[in-house]
Design a protein that fits this description.
This protein is mainly alpha-helical and 601 residues long. 61% of the residues lie in helices and 4% in strands. The chain has 5 domains: 176 residues, Serine Threonine Protein Phosphatase 5, Tetratricopeptide repeat (Alpha Horseshoe), CATH 1.25.40; 130 residues, no CATH class; 73 residues, no CATH class; 73 residues, no CATH class; 106 residues, Translation Initiation Factor IF3. Its main location: cytoplasm.
C-alpha cells in the first residue's frame, strides 16, 4: 500500500504490526484520509487473516470515533468486514462495528445481521445473546427496516439457542410495531368505510391528497392515543420511503396540503406535519436528493410550520439535535442555491447550537462551523457583506460558552471579510466587524486596521478614525518609539498614511500641550523625525520621497494648519523637521477642549 510518511509502516503493512512501546508514527488514518482508510480495510479483508481483521476493526472504530462517513466511505467494505469477522468467529469485533454504525447513522444490511444470528445459533453461543439482542434493538431504533420473515428467522434462531422467554419477548415486541403496519395496509379499523383497497389505492396511484384526508378522519375518530401514534408512524414511514422512487413529485407536499386543509386549524396536526417533514427531509438529504428536500422545506415555510423546535418522527432523526436538524435544512437550501432560505432557517432557530434543552455533540458543532463558513463565502462572492458579517457573528462559541470552541481561530474569517469590504470601498461593515473583534479579544490584521483608519479619515469620518487609532495604539499596531511623546520628539514611520501621520501629530500636540502653552515655549523645539523603515514597505528613495509629501500634507490637513520646517538629516539618514510653535499653539487653542478628551489616555 502507498502510505503517507507519517503513517507507521510496521503497523499498517506487516502481519506482526508495530511492537514499539511508544511509536511516533500514526496508527490511525488522519481525518480526511478516508480513501486511505478504506484501502487499508480492503487489503486486510482480502488477506483473510484473523489478526489483520482485528486490526481492521481497531482502525475502523478509532477512525469513525472522530469523523463521520464522507464521500469515500464504502458500505460494501464495511459489510465485507462484518462477514469476514463472522466467518472467523470474531463476534466481539462484530458488535464493536455494529455499535459504531449506529452512532454514525450508517446501518448495515439486514442480511449481515441475519448472518450473525445464524452463526451464533449454529455454534450455540448463548453467552453472546444478551449483547446480540441489545445491539439488535439499537439497530431497530436507529431505523433499520425488517420484513416479517426476518423477524421469524431471528426468533427461530433464538429458540434454537433455547433462550429465555423474556429474551424472545423483546424481539416479539419489536415485531409488533411492524404488525400494526401490516394491519394498516389490510384493514383500517379506525375508519370503517375504508380498508385495504383504499390505502393501496392511495399509495399505488400516488393519491396523497386522499391519504391526507384519511389521516384527518382517522385522527378525528380515534379514541386511543397509542392507536393514533401508530397510525402517524405508519404514514410517516410511507412518506419517507419516497426517496426510493424516481418520480419527480414529493408526496409529502400533497399530503401536508390535504391535512392542513381538512384539519380545521388543529395544532396537533401541524406538529405532526412538522415532525413528518423533518423525517422526510432527512431521507432526501441522506441520498442527496436536494430538490425534493427543498420542496419539503418550502412547503413547511409556506404552511408557517416552525419545524426547528420539533423532532423527527421516525428513524435516527427522532434523536437528532436541534443543531443537526437546522444544519440539514440549511445545507439543503445552500445546495439548491437559496442563501435566503438558509438564513431563514438559521434565524428561525436563533442560531442555536448547544443548550440544556437541545444538547448536541461535537460533530454537530463542527458541521455548523463548516456550514456557516460556506454561507459566509457565498455572501462574499455576491458582495453581501452585512449578511456575511451576521453569519460570522453567530459562529459556534460566540454566544454559547458550552460549545467549547476557541473563537480566536475565527480571526482569519473576519479579516477576510474586512479585506473584501475594502476592495469594494465599504466602510460600514469593517467598522462593525472590528468593533466585534475588539469586544471578543480577537487578533486583528494590523494592515487592515490601519487601512480602515486611513479610509475613515479620507472620508472625513474623523471621530471613528480617532477611535480606531486609539485601539491600534493600545494593541501595539505602531512602534513603541512613537509612545515617547513627552520628550518633544515625535518619530513617525515612513510607511504611515497621511491620515495616520495627522493623528500621530494630534497625539503629540496634546501630550506636549503644557510645554507648548508655557511662557518658556519660545525656547522649546518640537521635532518630528520621519523614520526610514527598511522592513516596512519602504525600499527606495522614491517611496521615502512620497512619505515626505504625506507628512507635509498631514500638517496642512490639520485645522488650523501646522507649519513644518525641514531642519536636517540625522545619522540614520532620516529627515528631521521642526514644528512651528505658533501654529501648534493656535491648534491647541482651537482644539484642546475635544482633543484632550480623545487623546489623554
Amino acid at each position: 500500500m502507498e502510505l503517507p510518511r507519517k503513517y507507521c509502516r510496521f503497523y499498517f503493512t506487516t502481519l506482526r504490526g508495530c511492537e514499539r512501546a511508544k511509536c511516533w508514527f500514526w496508527h490511525v488514518p488522519e481525518q480526511g484520509d478516508e480513501k486511505i482508510c478504506m484501502s487499508i480495510l480492503r487489503t486486510y479483508i482480502s488477506i483473510k487473516e484473523s489478526g489483520l481483521l482485528k486490526r481492521a476493526v481497531q482502525i475502523f472504530v478509532k477512525y469513525y470515533k472522530e469523523v463521520t462517513p464522507g464521500v469515500h466511505f464504502d458500505s460494501q467494505v464495511m459489510h465485507d468486514l462484518l462477514i469476514s469477522l463472522v466467518k472467523n468467529c470474531l463476534l466481539q469485533e462484530v458488535f464493536q462495528i455494529l455499535h459504531v454504525t449506529v452512532r454514525i447513522n450508517t446501518l448495515v444490511a439486514v442480511e449481515v445481521l441475519l448472518k450473525v444470528f445464524e452463526h451464533v445459533a449454529s455454534l450455540n453461543l448463548r453467552d453472546t445473546v444478551p449483547t446480540l439482542i441489545g445491539t439488535f434493538c439499537k439497530l431497530i431504533d436507529a431505523g433499520m427496516l425488517l420484513e416479517f420473515e426476518h423477524f421469524d428467522n431471528i426468533i427461530k434462531f433464538l429458540r434454537q439457542l433455547q433462550v429465555s422467554s423474556q429474551e424472545i419477548n423483546i424481539v416479539l415486541n419489536l415485531k409488533s410495531r411492524y404488525v400494526f403496519k401490516e394491519l394498516f395496509y389490510n384493514y383500517i379499523c379506525l375508519v370503517p368505510s375504508s380498508g385495504s383497497i383504499f390505502i393501496n389505492h392511495c399509495k399505488e396511484r400516488s393519491d396523497w391528497t386522499k391519504l391526507g384526508a384519511l389521516y384527518v378522519n382517522a385522527r378525528t375518530g380515534c379514541e386511543h392515543f397509542d392507536d393514533l401514534q401508530k397510525l402517524s408512524l405508519c404514514i410517516a414511514e410511507i412518506l419517507t420511503r419516497d426517496f426510493e422512487s424516481a418520480r419527480p413529485g414529493v408526496p409529502f407536499c400533497d399530503f401536508a396540503d390535504a391535512v392542513i386543509e381538512n384539519s380545521q386549524h388543529n395544532e396537533a396536526d401541524r406538529v405532526f406535519i412538522g415532525r413528518t417533514g423533518i423525517s422526510v427531509m432527512y431521507s432526501y438529504h441522506k441520498v442527496l436528493q436536494w430538490i425534493k428536500g427543498r420542496k419539503v422545506l418550502d412547503k413547511l415555510h409556506e404552511l408557517q410550520i416552525y419545524f426547528t423546535v420539533l423532532k423527527g418522527l421516525t428513524g435516527v432523526e427522532r434523536l437528532a439535535s436541534r443543531c443537526d436538524i437546522v444544519n440539514k435544512a440549511a445545507d439543503i437550501f445552500l445546495k439548491t442555491g437559496s442563501l435566503d432560505g438558509a438564513m431563514w432557517v438559521l434565524r428561525e432557530s436563533e442560531w442555536t447550537t448547544n443548550s440544556p434543552l437541545w444538547p448536541c455533540d461535537e460533530v454537530d458543532i463542527l458541521n455548523r462551523h463548516k456550514l456557516l463558513c460556506t454561507l459566509m463565502n457565498e455572501y462574499l462572492t455576491k458582495s453581501l457583506y452585512r449578511e456575511a458579517f451576521e453569519v460570522l457573528q453567530n459562529l459556534p462559541g460566540f454566544h454559547n460558552h458550552s460549545d467549547t470552541v476557541d473563537v480566536s481561530q475565527y480571526s482569519c474569517l473576519f479579516n477576510k471579510l474586512i479585506n473584501a469590504c475594502f476592495e469594494s470601498k465599504n466602510l460600514g461593515v469593517p467598522s462593525s466587524a472590528i468593533d466585534f473583534m475588539l469586544s471578543k479579544n480577537m487578533a486583528i490584521d494590523f494592515f487592515l486596521l490601519r487601512g480602515l483608519i486611513t479610509a475613515l479619515g479620507r472620508s472625513s469620518l474623523w471621530s471613528k478614525a480617532r477611535t480606531y487609532y486609539r485601539s491600534a495604539l493600545s494593541l501595539g499596531c505602531y512602534p513603541r518609539s512613537q509612545g515617547n511623546l513627552y520628550h518633544k520628539l515625535l518619530t513617525i514611520p515612513s510607511y504611515m498614511s497621511e491620515i495616520e501621520m495627522l493623528l500621530a501629530i494630534e497625539v503629540f500636540l496634546v501630550s506636549n500641550a503644557s510645554v507648548i502653552q508655557s511662557p518658556t515655549a519660545a525656547i522649546q523645539t518640537l521635532q518630528i523625525v520621519l523614520k526610514r523603515c527598511e522592513d516596512q514597505r519602504v525600499q527606495n528613495n522614491s517611496d521615502y520621497g512620497a512619505a515626505m509629501e504625506r507628512l507635509i500634507l498631514a500638517a496642512r490637513m490639520c485645522d488650523p494648519k501646522l507649519l513644518l520646517k525641514h531642519m536636517t538629516m540625522n545619522v540614520n539618514t532620516d529627515e528631521v523637521y521642526s514644528l512651528e510653535l505658533t501654529s501648534a499653539l493656535k491648534w491647541l487653542q482651537e482644539n484642546m477642549k475635544w482633543a484632550g478628551k480623545v487623546w489623554l489616555f
